[in-house]
């Protein structure tokens, strides 16, 4: 035992949650970390992998829940540093001014964000009852997830492609059980399960409290947009946002429908998103067109790069971060659960990864005690 203190940890899942958690554990030191996943960020976009479909921006939904706020604040701090001018991940982020309007008049308690200010009612959009502005950042999700993967590999992490049927396959067979032609097993000391929506079906987890919240988006090319804007109503489902990326692409959304499994963009929803976004942000239409006439959504259609949808991995009761023990031959090993991030997997990624690391270290110290 004492000859090899390095612990073998297998992370299941390579979405933003699995990648961030794997990196957090690897960079702590003392762990040999392998990611096993069915889909990686360099694969083509698929509805089985939510992370590539997100906007994404950091606009916390904690609304005064102090535990969630701490998680989101910690993540913001890490991302703010990563997005620093000249830093290696700068290109994955756009720092910008965000404006949020609330049709229901609720206060999201984002006073902790930089440059926070309440808007005066005379600058509200029609029907809004409250408005704020602050500084935040947006995340270019394909670039960022691939950055996380590259950093993980560069620091000595290993990746294995595999569709896990039951966590016991990982516990007993080791990560290379999924590599064709490989023989022999490798000791696994702990598993971290970050399967997103896969938590519904993955053996050893099978959490029926996990459900999809479908979000449809339209990706447009509008490099002149350098600010973010959102308008929302909690109850009636209205939720419109404009999220520009550093690349000049802009994500327009959105929808939020529980248990809707439709895997492709619905044309009528795209039309609805374009209408809402044009009303919220007429600046989306090129300035020369606006100078000529009152713009319509037909002026937005030529800007479309892609339409699609993703399934936010939501969970009744919120994110699950705790530990279960699973049989691995003669002994039992800990499984740290980290899934169910719903619509906030980016903005809570580093905070939840830190909790998962704490639980991992705690369990492994019990294990050898
Ligand atoms: C339209 C839209 C907009 C969004 N906007 C934002 C935003 O602005 N800010 C924000 O913070 N969040 C946003 N989100 C939410 C965010 O995208 C999710 O919370 C996040 O991507 C969840 O990441 P994940 O790693 O848990 O899941 P996923 O990205 O789905 O990754 C799951 C991983 O687990 C693997 N896996 C699952 N089951 C198995 C198995 N049995 N065997 C092997 N591998 C398995 C998959 O292959 C994949 O690698 C948005 C989501 C959508 C859809
Ligand atoms: C680390 O994990 C990889 C992949 O599972 C494995 O091939 C390698 O032998 C491990 N290294 C050590 C030092 O245990």
UniProtKB/TrEMBL annotation:
One of its GO terms (biological process) is D-amino acid catabolic process. Residues 9-358 form the FAD dependent oxidoreductase domain. Its cofactor is FAD. It holds the Pfam family DAO. Belongs to the DAMOX/DASOX family. The keyword rRNA-binding does not apply. Keywords: FAD, Flavoprotein, Oxidoreductase. GO terms for cellular component: cytoplasm. InterPro entries: DAO, FAD-dep_OxRdtase. GO terms for molecular function: D-amino-acid oxidase activity; FAD binding. D-dopa binds at residues 241, 312, 343. The lineage of its organism: Eukaryota, Fungi, Dikarya, Basidiomycota, Agaricomycotina. It comes from Phanerochaete sordida. This is D-amino-acid oxidase. FAD binds at residues 50-51, 164. It comes from the Eukaryota. The keyword Flavoprotein applies.
